[in-house]
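Appendix C: a fully annotated inverse folding record. The material below is reproduced so that readers can follow the format used throughout the book. The structure is listed first as tokens, followed by the designed sequence.
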């Protein structure tokens, strides 16, 4: 079989969605450009659903899919504009875009409302991402159609959220997606290794952040998938710390949660290592517990098990570890039952990963945790965050540790996509000593 070109892949995804609809019209807009201040904008990021179905990255674009006996796939996008292209760069324009991206037709974005009245007529169901900027606009189109009722044209009677269908498609990664996610993971592993080699006491968190960004960018991953967390010492106990402006002290740990976005796909890695290159005894005790919890969770991330199995596996190891460290009292069962572990581990053990760092897809189906299946990608990221407290041994104060990898579920187990980022105490100390 010939390998599929990118265009064939996107055409196939659109067909798949049309089959799932299987009647009606879907309106899927890309993301708007967002002003940062004055006349500068945040770096443009397309909408993930739109890009998943089109591969088209220009702003001001909308995809229309018509399902049923005469399926159509139509793009609305910016027209060619010689003057704007001098300032902002190339744009495809509808004609070339239709050809290059495999649409049945394409029109200038200015014609969208007018054409929509035409296209929506006599379609039984309107699918779109309900609850955003498009509610008012699409209801107006529907009202315009209703006003034509006496001419025999009917407006859609039903409205459904297209994401119900798309989220489920995106949850299962195809080979093309997995190959991009592998590449993104590899770059992020290199970045974590670079950060370990670079870090010394006296540096600032933002200096280490700069090393991460350098490594992402030099491999063509221009943007992080989320704001990097570079948290020295006590800052690691603030889960979403992004200040990244403190000095790194001798004797502290550094927690880095950072991953690049490549080709529209996220990677998401956390590593925690000593600023001076050597774990103290107390740091090592806590680290080994989190590492063992992660190993147990990764072992549980396989088909037949459900989404919640890795979390439950991690919790059991953490609960025993917290008892051993004198952070929690009682038996493992009692710690789990009372949830006393939540003082030190207050988040869950992972999330779906894909185009979005917290990717789409239901975690429960029919009220039950869903079984893990081949093609799903999730993170496995247990941690332990010990804030100062009279009830906590003093040598553990301000230790914050998380270890996070990206895991692809395969037909008979799993593949850790981020294996190349040093993780054991020995590996980390070796990288920091020799490189
Ligand atoms: N970096 C975001 C997360 O780990 O969920
Ligand atoms: Mn994560
Ligand atoms: Mn993360």
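Designed amino acids, in order:
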């Amino acid at each position: 079989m010939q390998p599929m070109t990118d265009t064939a892949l996107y055409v196939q995804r659109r067909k798949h969605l049309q089959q799932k609809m299987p009647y009606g019209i879907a309106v899927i807009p890309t993301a708007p450009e967002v002003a940062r201040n004055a006349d500068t904008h945040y770096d443009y990021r397309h909408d993930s659903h739109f890009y998943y179905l089109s591969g088209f990255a220009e702003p001001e674009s909308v995809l229309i899919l018509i399902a049923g006996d005469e399926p159509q796939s139509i793009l609305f996008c910016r027209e060619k504009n010689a003057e704007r292209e001098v300032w902002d760069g190339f744009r495809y324009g509808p004609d070339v875009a239709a050809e290059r991206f495999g649409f049945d037709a394409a029109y200038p974005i200015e014609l969208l409302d007018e054409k929509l009245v035409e296209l929506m007529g006599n379609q039984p169901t309107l699918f779109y991402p309900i609850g955003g900027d498009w509610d008012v606009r699409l209801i107006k189109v529907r009202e315009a159609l209703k006003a034509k009722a006496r001419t025999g044209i009917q407006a859609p009677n039903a409205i459904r959220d297209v994401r119900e269908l798309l989220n489920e498609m995106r949850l299962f990664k195809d080979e093309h997606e997995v190959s991009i996610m592998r590449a993104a993971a590899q770059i992020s592993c290199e970045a974590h290794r670079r950060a370990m080699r670079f870090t010394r006491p006296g540096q600032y968190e933002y200096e280490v952040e700069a090393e991460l960004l350098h490594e992402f960018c030099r491999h063509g991953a221009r943007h992080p998938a989320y704001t990097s967390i570079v948290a020295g010492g006590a800052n690691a106990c603030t889960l979403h710390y992004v200040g990244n402006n403190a000095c790194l002290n001798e004797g502290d740990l550094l927690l880095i949660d950072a991953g690049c976005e490549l080709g529209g796909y996220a990677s998401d890695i956390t590593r925690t290592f000593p600023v001076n290159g050597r774990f103290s005894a107390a740091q090592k005790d806590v680290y080994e517990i989190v590492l063992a919890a992660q190993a147990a969770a990764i072992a549980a991330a396989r088909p037949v098990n459900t989404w919640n199995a890795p979390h439950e596996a991690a919790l059991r190891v953490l609960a025993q570890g917290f008892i051993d460290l004198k952070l929690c009292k009682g038996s493992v069962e009692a710690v789990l039952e009372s949830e006393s572990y939540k003082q030190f581990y207050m988040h869950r053990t992972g999330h779906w990963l894909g185009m979005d760092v917290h990717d789409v897809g239901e975690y429960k189906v029919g009220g039950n945790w869903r079984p893990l299946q081949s093609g799903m990608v999730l993170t496995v990221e247990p941690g332990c965050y010990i804030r100062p407290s009279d009830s906590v041994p003093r040598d553990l104060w301000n230790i914050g540790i998380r270890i996070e990898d990206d895991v692809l579920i395969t037909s008979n187990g799993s593949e850790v996509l981020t294996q190349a980022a040093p993780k054991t105490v020995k590996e980390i100390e070796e990288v920091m000593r020799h490189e």
